[in-house]
Design goal:
Layout lengths: L1 H18 L12 H4 L10 E5 L4 E6 L3 H7 L4 H15 L4 E12 L2 E16 L3
Antiparallel strand pairs: 1-4, 2-4, 3-4
């Protein structure tokens, strides 16, 4: 009788131990790049034409627009924003060799400036 109770108790403990464990979800497998053999080159022949005159673009918290743009941004996020806006403002494809200067108070970015050379893609066959 005692052994039967011990076996039932042991089975109950094993059942509780295996059923009460949390199931953790993990992502796995292979990446799409490993599965799909894709061509990463361009079928177009293009040149990147870099302007000889550099540009400077800055976002400053002293303006209302700058306050809204820089609110709660990290330095990395502010750099990314300044670069994107410099590209859009100067109507170019990219800024070559961007250089950044910044002014911060604690963790708050007060001013971010990007300096570089605007560049556009031109067709080499033209």
């Amino acid at each position: 009788m005692k052994k039967t109770i011990q076996l039932i108790a042991l089975a109950a403990i094993a059942l509780v131990a295996t059923s009460s464990c949390k199931t953790s979800l993990t992502a796995g497998g292979t990446s799409a790049a490993e599965i799909i053999d894709s061509y990463t080159g361009s079928i177009n022949d293009v040149n990147l034409e870099i302007a000889s005159e550099p540009i400077t673009y800055n976002i400053d918290i002293s303006t209302t627009e700058g306050q809204l743009k820089l609110k709660n941004l990290s330095l990395t996020q502010a750099k990314s924003l300044a670069l994107r806006e410099a590209v859009m403002t100067n109507r170019c494809a990219k800024i070559v060799n961007p250089q950044y200067t910044h002014l911060m108070k604690g963790k708050q970015v007060l001013r971010i400036t990007v300096y570089g050379f605007p560049a556009v893609y031109k067709n080499a066959k033209e």
